[in-house]
Predict the structure.
Amino acid sequence: MIFFNEQSQTFVLKAANFDYRVKVINGYLAHEYSGKAVPDEDMAYRFAPNFAYSPADDSGDKLHFLNNLPLEYPCAGIGDFREPSLHILNKNGMTSNDLRYESHRIYAGKPKLKNLPATFANDDEADTVEIVLVDKPSGIEATLLYTAFKNLPVISRSARVKNIGEDSVTLLRALSLCLDIENTRLDMITLSGMWARECEVQRQPLKRGKHSVGSIMGKSSAEFNPFLAIVDRDATEETGEVFGFSFVYSGNWIGQAEVNHMDRARVVMGINPYDFAWKLDPGEAFQTPEVILNYSCEGIGKMSRQFHDLYRNHLIPKRWALTKRPVQLNNWEGTYFDFTMEKLLSIARVAAEVGVEMFVLDDGWFGKRDNDKSGLGDWFVNETKLLGGIKHLADEINAMGLKFGLWFEPEMVNPDSDLYRAHPDWCIHVPERIHSQSRNQLVLDFSRGDVRKHIYGMIKDVLSSANIEYVKWDMNRTLSEVGSAAAASGRQRETWHRFVLGVYEMMERLTSDFPELLLENCSSGGGRFDPGMLFYSPQIWASDDSDAIERVKIQHGHSLVYPVSTLGSHVSAVPNHQVGRVTPLKTRGHVALMGAFGYELDASQFTNEEKEQVRAQIEEYHRYCHLPRTGDLYRLGNPFEEMYDAWVFVSKDKNEAILQYIQILARPSCAPRIIKLKGLDPDKTYKIEQTGQVLSGAALMNAGIYQHLTGDFESSLLRLTTI
Ligand code: DGJ
């Protein structure tokens, strides 16, 4: 529910047990309160301690007022010296702006954001308020969009900045969210990593100064996932106040908490202002991507479960929201580039025999592509390598009872390719500078419609030529020397964002033209694992590190924000290709079961015993996968600090649960570990299928159960059902 209290000039946004209040003070839009629901009463007293000074425009000390006011969308250059949301180069070459409240509109539902991915909701699931602020001298109108979800403590925010004047202006920054949080003892949690080490959980105390994360790599990045949480210093998985911020965007971004000298924390999030500029001619508007603000007064675990519900029901394509995903076998780690038609078919035959449901052909099937030095951009099958072509392969695979999927890297081109030789200016580049390569490739200029059209045409031809039911869309480098041969000099700094918009447009076309297609994103693993991508693809390959023990941490970190059903997770061969570790097949299966499950190896090498084990694993997947996919996740361990991890997924009706326990290193002379379950119904009685033990929910949660495994990298999976 959202309403405007005329008397107190306050907007009251009520999400499920989460209130967000915004007040108009002397025309400024200020943040009054966010937290647990409170009755509708005048809370103007909350501003008093911050202002020893009069808010009036002609007051002799206006700057003190502005520098303390918790503004909802602060502008640069008028006396608020904290991080601004908006910074505009006006026609006079000057940059100060001053937005004041003009009007508002409240309505049911949630609008689509032009050309951008965003969460969606029906009219009975959310309400929206658009608050219009105007800076008359600059001719700028900023419309702040807030949507309050009725069944979740979640508010989404974005802004639309329009030039309503008669001269062109240039946006130097247009962030999506600003939220000033009260003076308390706070920590900041971020997800940091790099290739093969994505989403390590970092937690640090917030002290005075700026604590900034983000990306200037042209993609959301593995270095920092586009997320941060501001939590009570004492917050745990179950207790404490938590504000989670997640950015629905796949390019350069910034997330920052700034603690000022009054010990207030200003959190901002949006497109990174680094090298960003966007020219707005009269009448034009710029829409920022949206930030999801997720509130929990019961700790970090609840924040995660709310993100999971939101992203499962209001972000990933509806077609896949609750749909069971086919068990896939991807040939990448099994063959890399070294395969023939017969080799692929021999792998697929065994895959079909053990119960795999989809065969995915990864990199190396097109152009002149026997290694990573050539071929990207030439999206036609290499018939010398794949005798009979993609249609023949897909038909053969289908005849085995398997679906067929294919890998592409649409945004890239190798200098050694027919495409590059024909169109050297189609890559992102700065003339007269070296075109820096990474993995021997350059980035195509997807800010250009002609480039997108050509690439999309080739991809569409391949997808229309055979029964291809899955696409893995990869992206294996960052952006450098960013410039576009098609853009005017005054618009070059738009290229970063236009590139991301171009990628979104391609994904929109692909998923509209092939509505049944299962799209899986990937960027050297989790280099672009973000909500923007999840809007198009319901699963993303979470990491190129397929080692089960490394994956425990990687999947744990991702689970802070992302439902595990969105994490591509495969069983691979041992010794593991990334770390050389040998782990039991059982453990590899258990870890992969907590994601979009599959295999990534040469199945034709399976021994008979391995075939039996894999068959059993796939049966386990079919019996249990609805719990990770639709249930509530409770994290019971912390692999960043301890030698084990444990998770329990509980069905929404609490009648069923699955407990996964992974031991990292074994230790001698230790008592068995006690795992206290969470999320069960204390009054119900549960039977553990594998041990026959019968215990109440209360006993399972308060007294716990013992786990005592012998050996490194061992695991257990227990299913509990009510009796
Ligand atoms: C990087 C991906 O993360 C891998 O899974 C694989 O698809 C390779 N690219 C192929 O080049």
Q: What stands out?
A: Residues 332, 362-363, 407, 474, 476, 522, 524-525, 541, 544 surround DGJ (CB under 6 Å).
